[in-house]
Amino acid sequence: MNMLEINNLKTTVGDAEILKGLSLKVNAGEVHAIMGPNGSGKSTLALVIAGHDDYVVTDGTVQYDGQDLLELTPEERARTGVFLGFQYPVEIPGVNNAYLLKAAINAKRRHEGRSEVDAFEFLQLAREKMKDLDMDPSFLNRGVNEGFSGGEKKRNEILQMVMLEPRLAILDETDSGLDIDALKAVAKGINAMRSPDRAIIVITHYQRLLDYVEPDFVHVLSEGRIVRSGDKTLAQQLEDKGYDWVREAASA
Amino acid sequence: MIAIAHELLEAAVRRMPEDALTPARKAALAHFATSGFPTVSDEDWKYTNLRHAVELSNTWLGNDIVASPESNLTAAAEEAVKAITESIDAYWIVVANGIATVDTMPGANDLRSNGVSITKLSQNGDVAAIIANDPMTSFNAALLQDGLRVRVQPSANPSKPLAFLFVDEATQGDLSQARLIIDVDAGATIDIIEAHVSVGSDPQFANTVIQLRVADGARVGFVRIQERADSHMQVGKLIADLRRDAYFDYASFDFGGSLIRNDVAVNIMEPGASVNLNGLYLASGKQHIDNHTRIDHRVGPSQSREEYRGILGGRSRCVFNGKAIVHKGADGTDAEQSNHNLLLSETAEIDTKPELEIYAEDVKCAHGATVGQLDNSALFYLRSRGLDRDAAVQLLTRAFAARILAAAPIAETHAYIAQKTDQRLDALIHGDSQ
Ligand SMILES: Nc1ncnc2c1ncn2[C@@H]1O[C@H](COP(=O)(O)OP(=O)(O)O)[C@@H](O)[C@H]1O
Ligand SMILES: [Mg+2]
Q1: Of the N and C termini of chain B, which has fewer Cβ atoms inside 10 Å?
Q2: Residues 6+ apart with CB under 8 A from B318
Q3: What does B242-269 look like in DSSP terms, one character per residue?
Q4: Using CA positions, which residue lies closest to atom 9 of ligand 1?
């Protein structure tokens, strides 16, 4: 059984149809990269999987571990191990970063029938993971993403991912806007998550991240459909020939 | 618009005991006779209709009773008193159904030896100090049994805040008038709490006035906590006069009541004074909460900072009107004012109006107001991390209120206010998802 199986997915936002019959299969242990030009529907796909209600599914199915993912609320999806690293993480002044992190972990643990995380262990672990990501521990005590730079927000997303240990992680352009040091830190965080029972989907606009996080599969999304799939060499081809090449191939 | 029954009011004033306050009552009655209760055609009362308060007042006046000077509380009221006085460590003075009994007040000696004296207004004799210059302060003075006169001496150094608890119960007095006159002497520092609780499901109407004079260089921290029963009405007015270099740090919290109107009038009378007004109102059901503030910068330099925030659910209606007036010659005035509102339901309503009137030259003034709903992308972000909708809404509304909680003076009140805020938000969120 595939961990994630998307069949002929069609979604609208407002009046516009964005995903126009998208299909994708992802197995545990795999890393998939989804590339594509701006506006092709990459974030839409990520947000539909996470359960954002601005995006209406008009056709198709999404199965996660054999269950209908579209039936679940966003919080239920998160608790069963779906994680979305946002392209644009929201600033939430007044909500403490550590509080959210802990509440998120506890929501998941409660769902799994486990006891709440010990406050001391939580802090130890958070500090350790932050060190790996080259994040100052003071970020724990700030408002969620409040006043964070672009790179700091992306690291915070990765911090949440490594603390929550999802089964399916979708990272939406976590690499964009990062300098090379931040990119390496983020890539290190992603690579540390690779495991036989976890799947990772990295959405990226550039080949750059894939130099550090080697995907098993690369898909090209264009105008709401996956128009080409291949191995990591596809990313290099894209980089060399540009997106027009796939667009032409798709319409041919 | 139903009017107050004047002959009944006159009879009630006549029935009150002859004492030092009698001339003040009569003068106030004469003043009130020219105006009557404010109506919605008065600009300042446009959104707040006192019709039910007038009806209740007429019934009460017609019943031919004037609350006895003894104020015995029922067990339910005693419980309500305990709940707050045992939670906030302070010198508590209970004003029950408008009547304060200072003689039996615990800690009175302690306060006296620390430079704070409290006497009955009727004993003090300074009747001229009683302000009765608008309808509601006049109505208060006309029917005032007695009030309290508080004096905070320059050397005052009480170890705990001075706290006044206005407790009313519908079965004892359907109508109550209370008044405090507080003088804070030059250089003194004091924390003052004004708390309101009430019990009983019948309607009740309380009308309170607090006059505060802050002398040269004195510093006053002030917290108002209003958690009246949901069938009870209250009109309150705080008048604060600030002298040279005085500092007045005020925060107000509205949690309860059916109809609440609170006025804060700050007079900056001498240079160097500084005032902070902060307020939080949480309304649900059919609550009506109206906060009116007015800051008169009569001289400069002086500074005022004001921020009120409201979270509204159900069919509640709130009003914010904040007026800052920079008088001619008040150069060097620095005034900032804002009001932000979060509407959790489509049927909640807010009327907000920050106003600036500037008649001086060299001033720095800013004001603004916002009305919005919960940020949907923030809500989704929290849910995508596994928090259920209610928990996410609680977090976001709490974050919205946090600025006012953080701005409140008097640390002794903070845990209590935070707890009440959480309770109210909980009720608001769950009430609205039904
Ligand atoms: N919330 C939204 N409201 C309206 N249009 C949207 C919304 N989200 C996405 N779109 C539109 O959907 C299309 C795909 O956007 P998106 O999924 O963000 O693309 P990508 O992530 O590939 O750049 C774009 O045309 C965009 O304008
Ligand atoms: Mg995108």
Answers
A1: C
A2: B281, B283, B288, B289, B290, B291, B310, B312, B341, B348, B349, B350, B351
A3: E-TT-EEEEEEEE---SEEEEEEEEEE-
A4: A44
User: Can you tell me the distance from the alpha carbon of B89 to that of A143, in angstroms, rounded to the nearest whole number?
Assistant: 31
How far apart, in whole angstroms, are the C-alpha atoms of residue B413 and residue B110?
21
Ligand 2 midpoint to CA B228 (Å): 50
The residues spanned by each domain of chain B are 6-270
Q: Which residues contact A163 (CB under 8 A, 6 or more apart)?
A: A101, A104, A105, A125, A126, A129
**Residue minimizing CA distance to atom 27 of ligand 1:** A39
CB B243 within 8 Å of CB B205: no
Mean pLDDT of A48-76: 97
Long-range contacts, stretch B33-38, CB < 8 angstroms, 24+ apart: B33/B6, B35/B134, B35/B135, B35/B138, B36/B3, B36/B4, B36/B6, B36/B135, B37/B3, B37/B4, B37/B135, B37/B136, B37/B139, B38/B135, B38/B136
Write the CA distances from A232 to A6, A34, A202, A207, B395, integer angstroms. 21, 11, 13, 10, 42
Which tokens belong to B330?
């008040």
ipTM of the shown complex = 0.96
DSSP letter at A140 equals G
With the CA atoms of B426, B427, B431 and B433 taken in that order, what torsion angle do they form, in degrees rounded to the nearest 10?
Answer: 0
CA distance linking residue B383 with residue B377, whole number of Å? 10
Among A249, A227, A236, A179, smallest CA distance to A36 is for A227
Nearest Cα neighbor of B353 from B37, B40, B46 is B46
Measured from CB, residues less than 6 Å from any atom of ligand 1 are A 13-14, 18, 36, 38-44, 54
Q: What is the pLDDT of residues B272-331, one digit of tens each?
A: 999 999 999 999 999 999 999 999 999 999 999 999 999 999 999 999 999 999 999 999
Mean pLDDT (chain A, rounded): 93
> Residue B11 class from Cβ within 10 Å (0-12 exposed, 13-18 middle, 19+ buried)?
middle
Which pTM was predicted?
A: 0.91
Residue of A54, A84, A92 with shortest CB distance to B399: A92
Q: Which stretches of B98-166 are DSSP H helices?
A: 108-113, 121-124, 135-142
Q: State pLDDT tens for residues A201-223.
A: 999 988 889 999 999 999 999 99
DSSP 3-state of A195 = coil
First to last CA, chain A: 33
CA–centroid distance, A211 to ligand 2, in Å, is: 20
Section A91-119 average pLDDT: 95
Q: In whole angstroms, what is the distance from residue B401 CA to residue A60 CA? A: 42
> Which value, in Å, is the radius of gyration of the alpha carbons in chain A?
18
**The predicted structure's pLDDT at residue A243:** 81
